[in-house]
Amino acid sequence: MPKREFKIELLPHERKALLKWNYTVEVRSQLEPLASSRGVETIAIGRVDLNWLVSDLNHAIVKRGCRDEDVFELSERLEYVQDTGNGKLHAWHCPILHS
Q1: Residues 24, 56 contacting (CB under 8 angstroms)
Q2: pTM
């Protein structure tokens, strides 16, 4: 079983974007049961799956013409999670951390 070293909090619109644009079985299996939730939900994934998520979103933007601002921001946030290991929403949305 792959190591799930990243816990990532996701908003409903972020989960919807990931279900549309990612092809990672491990992630989809966690997201599908959460699709109707209106709250923040957390998924746990390993480094390889996180790399695939970022790659899938970037591919959607560059190669498939995705122009969804939610996808742009989510791609940046997942890169931040890769760099910092912090998947909490408040870590990304806190302006002090990004100045």
Answers
A1: yes
A2: 0.85
Distance CA 31, CA 94 (A): 25
User: 44 — alpha (psi -120 to 50), left (phi > 0) or beta?
Assistant: beta
> Which sign, positive or negative, has the C-alpha torsion 79, 11, 53, 34?
positive
* CA 93/CA 45 separation, integer angstroms: 21
- Say how many C-beta atoms besides its own lie within 10 A of residue 9's C-beta: 17
Res 23: pLDDT? 85
Instruction: Going from the first residue of the chain to its last (99 residues), give the mean pLDDT of each consecutive group of 10, the final group possibly shorter.
Output: 83 94 91 96 96 93 86 94 94 63
Q: Token digits for 25? A: 């079985």
**Measured between alpha carbons, how far is 24 from 52 in angstroms, rounded to an integer?**
7
- Name the β-bridge partners of 42: 9
CB of 74 within 8 A of CB of 14?
yes
